[in-house]
Structures are given as C-alpha cells and as structure tokens.
C-alpha cells in the first residue's frame, strides 16, 4: 500500500505542521473505470446529392445569383426563428464583401445542420464543400429542408403556424444538448 504525500508548500512565511495532513492510502487494484460512451444514432444520408440542383431549378438560379437569400432562409430554420432570414443574409453578405470568404460562416451552419438532423459528413467535408462548392451546398441544404416538409418562403414561425394546422408533418431538428450534460 502506498500513501499520498502532498507536494511541498511554497514558503508563505507561516509555519505549517505536516502532521496536520492525513495520509490516505491509494489502491491500485481497482483503477477507476472509464464512463461508458453514449451510443449515437446511425447517420442518415442526405435526401439529395450535392449536385442535385435540377430538382429545383428556380432555387438553383436564385442561389447562383444571390446566395445570401438561400443562406438566410436555411439559417432561420436552423436557428429555430431566433434570428431572421434578413439578418443572417445581411451578415453573410457583409462577411463576403469584407473578407471575400463567406464560406466560413455558411460552413458553421452546415455543421450545425448535419448535427441537428444526424446527417452523414464531418466538419472537414463541411468546410471543403462550402469553400469549393458554396452554391451547391446551400442548394442541397435548402432541398433537404424542403424534403423534410418546410416551406422555405414562410420562415420558421410561418412553418410552425402551418404545422399547428395539421396539414403538414414537419420534421424540426431535435433539441440540441451540450456535450457536458448527462
């Protein structure tokens, strides 16, 4: 059996009697066990491919000409209405004008999108897709939300009102939990 010996205390000018410290035995026969990992649900494939723009040509043209509108619509749904389409679209445009690299902002939303809906991919592919295929990525996210029952022109609050009427079964993202919670 070994005993824990505290490290020497720095000199503070106050004498300390070491007999005050209780020596506690440490057992090495039963080391602490790691906590079991929570099993995550299997990842789901995207409902359309990255280059499936031919399914919705009007959104494809809109996104090619003005990606801030598509980004704003998608981000409003992902933020559950806590931010508006206009604010997110304006911020996207401001970042694009100032840095020329709005893909950083939209990449973060793709990562959030994937995690909320448990979709295939990872942070690295999110970044690469948005850096090299920004418009295709935004169109894919837009189509995914449409395929899940959202009317993108209504925004979050309009879709929630429509969903209460019972005419459409919406698939809102599950509540996000911090990793530190049990």
Structural notes for this entry:
By secondary structure, the protein is an all-alpha fold. Helices cover 47% and strands 2% of the residues. The chain has 7 helices and 2 strands. The chain has helices at residues 57-65, 67-78, 85-99, 103-117, 123-132, 134-147, 155-164; strands at residues 2-3, 25-26. The chain has a two-stranded antiparallel ribbon.
The spatial strand order of the largest sheet comes to 1-2
Judged by helices, strands and strand pairing, the structural class is: mainly alpha
Number of helices: 7
- Main pleated-sheet profile: 2 strands, antiparallel
Total strands: the figure is 2
| Binned strand content | under 5%
The backbone outline, from C-alpha atoms, is elongated
Arithmetic mean of pLDDT: 78
Instruction: Please tell me how large the radius of gyration is.
Output: 26 Å
How much helix is in the residues? 40-55%
- Spans with pLDDT under 50 lasting ≥5 residues? none
State the end-to-end distance. 35 Å
Which series of helices and strands comes N to C? Answer: EEHHHHHHH
Quaternary state reads single chain
């Amino acid at each position: 059996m070994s005993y824990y010996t505290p490290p020497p205390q720095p000199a503070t000018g106050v004498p300390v009697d070491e007999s005050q410290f209780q020596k506690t035995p440490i057992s090495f026969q039963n080391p602490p066990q790691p906590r079991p990992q929570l099993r995550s649900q299997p990842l789901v494939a995207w409902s359309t491919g990255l280059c499936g723009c031919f399914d919705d040509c009007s959104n494809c043209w809109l996104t090619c000409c003005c990606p801030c509108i598509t980004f704003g619509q998608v981000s409003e749904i992902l933020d559950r209405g806590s931010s508006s389409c206009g604010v997110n679209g304006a911020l996207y445009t401001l970042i694009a004008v100032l840095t020329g690299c709005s893909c950083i902002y939209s990449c973060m939303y793709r990562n959030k999108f994937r995690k909320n809906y448990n979709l295939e991919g990872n942070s690295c592919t999110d970044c690469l897709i948005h850096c090299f295929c920004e418009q295709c990525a935004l169109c894919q996210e837009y189509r995914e939300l449409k395929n899940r029952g959202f009317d993108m022109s209504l925004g979050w609050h309009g879709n929630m009102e429509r969903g209460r009427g019972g005419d459409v079964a919406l698939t809102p993202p599950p509540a996000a939990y911090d990793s530190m919670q049990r």
